[in-house]
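Handoff note, outgoing to incoming analyst
You'll be picking up this chain. Sequence as last confirmed:
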Amino acid sequence: QVQLVESGGGSVQTGDSLRLSCVVSGRVFSNYPMGWFRQTPGNERTFVAQINISGTRKTYTDSVKGRFTISRDNAKSTLYLQMNNLRPEDTAVYYCQTKWGNNWLSDWGQGTQVTVSS
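Most recent structure output, in case you need it:
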């Protein structure tokens, strides 16, 4: 059974930092590109960042470029998202996901809540 378990969220102030983690089990983590998504109430889940298998290629949505850094530790089957200079508009539930070919899988975890107050 595949599990994606996100953690590290919290309530912070504008300009603060958080580091999210996602531990993957039941799937060979090092075989897949991975990504982070976020969702606010009443809205669809949106793409934040992705990383290739080796960790050498990363892409970000424009609004987080220069502030967020995605990384991975294949030995620990863990994906990370370092979030610096947080803004209120970053408030959301953050999810990790696996990429299969050109598609993102749909076995979502419970997510981790990030709340940024001004």
